[in-house]
Amino acid sequence: MSKHVIPAPQAHSIPTSTGGTFPVRRVYCIGRNFAAHAVEMGHDPDREPPFFFQKNPNNLDASGEFPYPPHTSDLHHEVELLACLKSGGTNIALDQALDHVWGYGVSLDMTRRDLQGQMKKMGRPWEIGKAFERSGPVGPVKPVSEIGHPDQGRIALHVNGELRQEGDLNQMIWKVPEMITYLSEYFELAAGDVIMAGTPAGVGAVVKGDVMEAEIAGLGALRVQVI
Partners of 223 in the beta sheet? Predict the structure, then answer.
């Protein structure tokens, strides 16, 4: 008999290309990890210590539809590589970091930019602009055994057929193994943790009815309509 005083929340998972699902424990998102994006957001592109914010596991959504959220008039798209961990630990050595990755996918970090901007000015956390319902559209996660560890290749996003974002994974300031090592110094990573690895320049607003098509070389495309 359960000792819970309320029904236990359902564990969240996202699809994989294998037919199974990947259970999500935590979602770590790195900020300003492409130099050109740092510049467009008004920051120095020089390599500085990385910083992270978090989304909630159930923010990740594979439905292909993104409901326009309330309390914003400046909703932005950000295409990102998603790295999914099969194991973890603390103080993970750099040369062992990729051993903990199960697979990779295409994702979007949808952002209420106006609310995020307000929080920045007030010195407050960003979650109201980042961690809202279905704010992390994702495609199927592909296992390392199928695609290896993508560290270069085109990353791009079109809106209604118009190219908005374009870059290369090799332009990431902090690479996936470096992010894993850094995070493991401050958190105990574990199976089910995912990392959203940052976005290239060209972020911009979308409105209801827009169709976003994100792609990463070797990982395929993700099509999401704003509803």
Answer: 213
Domains plus CATH for the chain? 17-226 (3.90.850.10)
Looking at residue 6, what DSSP letter applies? S
Residue 60, Cβ neighbours under 10 Å: how many? Answer: 23
State which amino acid sits at residue 48.
Answer: E
Give tens-digit pLDDT for 62-114. 999 999 999 999 999 999 999 999 999 999 999 999 999 999 999 999 999 99
* 191-216 CB burial, b ≥16 within 10 A, e <16: ebbbbbbbbbbbbbbbeeebebbbbb
Q: Are 141 and 150 in contact (CB under 8 A)?
A: no
Place of tokens 């827009």: 210
Token pair for residue 179? 């992010």
Alpha carbon distances (Å) from 61 to 52, 67, 95: 20, 11, 32
Residue 204 β-bridge partners? 77
164: tokens are 């908005």
Q: How far is CA 36 from CA 39, 91, 130, 189, 219, in A?
A: 5, 30, 21, 29, 23
Cβ atoms within 10 A of the Cβ of 78, count? Answer: 23
The reported pTM is: 0.94
DSSP state of 44: -
As a whole number of angstroms, the distance between CA 223 and CA 101 comes to 25
